[in-house]
Design brief:
Radius of gyration: 27 Å
Largest sheet: 14 strands, mixed
Strand content: 15-25%
Number of helices: 26
Oligomer: single chain
Number of domains: 4
């Protein structure tokens, strides 16, 4: 792969960049050659990989759309064994391709049976470096250098994943909110079943409730409106919502019978995925919120019998069955003869905008209540579980209200579930849940970069940000409100990493002697040694929240100092040992945001950790490099400090191989390591020996190599892909 190295002093980040492409001026000299004429589809078909600098220029040429940039990034970077970077255009491409090559349904059923009947290993033999990915309800392991893959069902994982922790759905937050909130209403599911359709707020007086009690489950329903003044003209959405919720109750009953009414769901500590017997988020929520408080083991048997009698009537295609139940008359008849299930439906309380917010035309008091209700939109999602009624993922995520609700559920509420609006077997790629799950790995990253471009770099205004995100709304007056709610959502805290992640910034290397340093010789799967001691909390909860920087359009741009990926400070000695702060972030914008906070709160960090911070670096590991780059290089820098404080999110500490390599290399050089973790409750944790006065003279070298550093080596323009990071650092050859 051709790399653009530069000899001379390490480059400084520019105070302003070329906003038309949101890249530093040095990229103006990059020639993209044949890539200039390639569409994203042509690039995919060619199978070629562009070097990182070419990819950055190619992806931005002639477009301002974040989706189009992301599509080109995914088409020109190294291919991953997983689905790769997923934007709306890439998702559409995969769907169209799958539909073109799909097999007849009968043949596809046979193929799936062959997969199920294929030989499976009884257990996993660990011999070498393992990698893995999750595909549907299976986990697939690969051994480095071996052609064989090891495939296991997550419900019956290998013994390697036997170390598990409880992972039950939490009890609804609404149980702890005793007083009603003005403007927040809920509609019991049994009322919806009785009405057989979605009814306008003004026509539901006396039918709604204002609080949620123990043994009740609040469910926020996110869905598309199918007409300007009526979300569900045919009643189809009401039928799907009711039948999906009844099916979830039935699934919860089956889980209680098979796993045990009070037996918690489990999650593997090693890979972070749920393992063993489990159900959908909605079914698990029904188990925790409905069954455990109201059902005992004696009644469970009767409830199982009622559930099975309905399962026998409903064939495999729940959507088609629900569509045929006009006005929910069939459901009312079934529940009339099944009192236990009927009682449970009355305990599910729904938030549906048409039913729970005043609709036009509104009186003055109704308009005031409408405004109160809008301000409580996030609250309604945080009080319970969000379910998304979905049949067209692309259209859903292009609607501003829907996108806001999906990202709020994904980032703030913790989880969501999907109620499919498509009949079974119509989508060869797995249906709406699979598509939305893939998309929500990366779409929040695109939104986050748009917010950084607007609020941190002041590259665009909020209107252009919404345009570049390709989202729309029926009433343009709603856009400022929606934008303000989007920017108040903190940085994504779930990790999606690919071999084609773009690595830019400065990778700090522990200096071992003048002109020499220690570099990693491989990327670790996870951080090998968890922190051992919690020191103290940090008052850093707002680090990754852009709304705290000021009102829309009035935020201050990132200072020049924070844009520098490596800085040193000289201070009067005060008896404390020196420390280096290494920031690892999801993109350059996030790195600058954290650096700005660290630089201005350095004294607090020093006091908390008992050190003197002498230098600071930032490194961006970017799965979706669609936003502004203020640096755009990858460089190495020697660090002499005996202590390292790694500032990042917990997900990266546990599951990012780049972060693992950085931490392990510091340990291998005898440096003492601490972590400043930027979660909702930010805190510092330390490993053994922190803080140290000097490096450990006899460390275990581990997977690291001595390298020589050329002081003239400026780095690589455009950075490098994750799969090439070790070669760049020189850890594999010492070069």
């Amino acid at each position: 792969m051709r790399r653009r190295r530069w000899l001379g002093c390490p480059p400084a980040a520019e105070p302003r960049v070329g906003w038309s492409r949101r890249l530093p001026a040095a990229f103006g000299a990059v020639e993209v050659g044949e890539w200039n004429s390639l569409s994203a589809a042509d690039a995919r078909l060619s199978g070629h990989v562009a070097d990182a600098a070419t990819m950055l220029v190619y992806s931005r040429r002639g477009t301002r759309s974040y989706d189009e940039i992301a599509e080109r990034v995914g088409a020109s970077t190294p291919r991953d064994v997983t689905a790769g970077l997923t934007d709306r255009l890439t998702m559409r491409f995969r769907q169209e391709r799958a539909l073109r090559v799909r097999r007849p349904l009968a043949l596809e059923a046979i193929r799936r049976e062959q997969d199920l009947l294929s030989h499976r290993p009884l257990d996993l033999t660990v011999d070498g470096h393992l990698s893995y990915f999750v595909s549907g309800d299976e986990i697939v392991f690969r051994v480095e250098g071996a052609p064989v893959t090891w495939r296991f069902a997550l419900s019956y994982p290998p013994r390697l994943l036997a170390d598990t922790v409880d992972d039950d759905v939490t009890e609804p937050t609404a149980w702890r909110v005793l007083l009603p909130k003005t403007g927040l209403w809920w509609l019991p599911l049994d009322r919806l079943i009785r009405q057989g359709r979605l009814v306008r707020w003004q026509d539901l007086r006396g039918e709604r409730v204002a609080t949620i009690g123990q043994g009740q489950l609040p469910v926020f329903v996110s869905h598309r409106w199918l007409a300007v003044d009526q979300p569900d003209p045919t009643g189809r959405q009401a039928r799907l919502i009711a039948w999906h919720l009844l099916a979830a109750i039935g699934e919860a009953v089956n889980i209680a019978e098979a796993r045990g009414l009070h037996e918690p769901r489990r999650r593997s500590y090693i890979v972070g995925h749920r393992v063993g017997m489990g159900g959908s988020e909605l079914a698990e929520a029904c188990l925790v919120a409905l069954l455990r408080p109201t059902v005992d083991d004696g009644v469970l048997g009767e409830l199982v019998a009622e559930t099975r009698s309905i399962e026998e009537l409903v064939d495999d295609d729940l959507v088609s069955f629900a569509e045929a139940d006009d006005g929910l008359a069939k459901m009312r008849g079934l529940l009339k003869r099944r009192p236990l299930l009927a009682e449970l439906t009355s305990r599910i309380h729904l938030w549906i905008d048409y039913c729970c917010l005043p609709q036009p035309p509104r009186t003055e008091p109704e308009h005031a209540e409408f405004r109160d209700g809008l301000r409580l939109l996030n609250t309604a999602q945080l009080l319970g579980l969000t379910v998304i009624l979905l049949d067209d993922v692309e259209d859903y995520t292009r609607r501003a209200w829907c996108l806001l609700e999906a990202i709020t559920a994904y980032r703030l509420a913790g989880d969501y579930d999907v109620l499919s609006g498509l009949p079974e077997n119509t989508d060869p790629l797995g249906g709406p849940y699979t598509h939305l799950s893939d998309l929500l790995l990366d779409l929040p990253q695109l939104v986050w970069r748009a917010m950084l471009d607007t609020e941190l770099f002041r590259a665009i205004d909020w209107r252009e940000a919404m345009t570049r995100l390709d989202i729309s709304v029926t009433d343009p007056d709603d856009l400022p409100f929606i934008y303000d709610l989007l920017r108040a959502i903190p940085a994504p805290n779930r990790l999606h990493t690919l071999v084609g992640d773009l690595i830019t910034g400065v990778f700090p290397l522990p200096q071992t002697s003048v002109g020499s340093a220690l570099a990693p010789s491989k990327l670790g799967a996870t951080v090998a040694e968890p922190p051992r001691e919690r020191i103290a909390p940090l008052q850093w909860a707002d680090v990754l929240n852009l709304s705290t920087r000021g009102a829309v359009g009035k935020t201050s741009a990132a200072p020049v100092a924070a844009r520098q990926p490596f800085v040193k400070w000289w201070k009067a000695a005060h008896g404390r040992p020196k420390a280096h702060v290494a920031i690892v972030a999801s993109c350059e914008g996030e790195a600058v945001l954290i650096a700005d906070w660290v630089d201005s709160h350095r004294a607090e960090l020093e006091t908390t950790c008992g050190v003197m911070v002498s230098s600071r670096s930032w490194l961006a590991d970017d799965v979706a490099p669609v936003g502004t780059l203020v640096y755009g290089w990858l460089a190495r820098a020697p660090v002499t400090a005996p202590n390292w404080i790694i500032v990042t999110q917990s997900a990266r500490r546990g599951h990012c191989s780049v972060t693992a390599a950085l931490a392990e290399t510091a340990r291998n050089a005898g440096r003492a390591v601490a972590w400043a973790l930027l979660d909702e409750e930010a805190h510092v944790v330390t490993e053994a020996g922190f803080p140290a006065r000097s490096p450990n003279p006899e460390p275990e070298r581990g997977d690291a190599s001595q390298i020589r550093l050329d002081p003239r080596d400026q780095g690589v323009l455009g950075g490098v892909y994750r799969e090439n990071l070790i070669a760049f650092l020189g850890g594999d050859s010492g070069a």
